[in-house]
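Q: Hi! Curious about what Regulator of protease activity HflC (Stomatin/prohibitin superfamily) looks like structurally. Here's the sequence.
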Amino acid sequence: MKETKAWYVNGGIGVVLIIFLVVWAALLFVQYMSIVLPAVLVVLALLLATGMTIVQPNQAKVVTFFGRYLGSIRDSGLFLTVPLTIRQTVSLRVRNFNSSTLKVNDVEGNPIEIAAVIVFKVVDSAKAVFDVENYEKFVAIQSETAIRHVATKYPYDTFEGHEITLRGNADIISDVLANELQARLTVAGVEVVEARLSHLAYSPEIASAMLQRQQASAILAARKKIVEGAVSMAQMAIEQLDKEGILELDDERKANMVNNLMVAIVSERATQPVINTGSLY
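A: Let's find out. The predicted structure is below.
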């Protein structure tokens, strides 16, 4: 099923025709006291009246005639279309679907809670009406299915930083979710405008343990940066002394200097200076 344009004309023409037929029927009845021809004209006027329809902005009317799809009306206003047709209204406005909080396992098997907001609109009214039973329920069910599927493809978080994660790559995850949703909802004539995660957290039963793991990982990462900086600073200090010839240090003195610098930089507490009045030997 694909949306097509239905036959319709300006509603003002329909109103004029209906009034003309009614007035003509009244004049014939008064002039000739005949019932047959005026009755036929009134029936024609009523028949035309069944074809009058009003379309609101950002809405479409799906027109069917005794089970046959005749097309859709997307223009807003008053129109005259085929009489005796059924016209079903479909909203073309942008809408939000806020999914419920789902409990799933990520790719590593950790239970997590996840929810998303889906922004969508109908772009094919015929598909939305005829290809699915109820396109709004279809969007809701397929959205939750896609969220579950995407959540099981990626880890919640990684402590090495070398892969895509649900928490660390929100934009990428949103694009993946939107693309998967679009593939599922095309059959219903729905376009996915945007998909964003609205809730993401570890399940309560493992949240405390995962928090400790994250804290430990953060401490290790910070320590690594501090050590790298300390080594770089010690290397720069020795190279500067050698370059300018301020001091001539043998390997043992260089090792002692590096040791002191490392202790001073890496230590969590403030270092206490010790003045050496003697010699290393």
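A: A fun detail: Residues 204-244 form the longest helix (41 residues).
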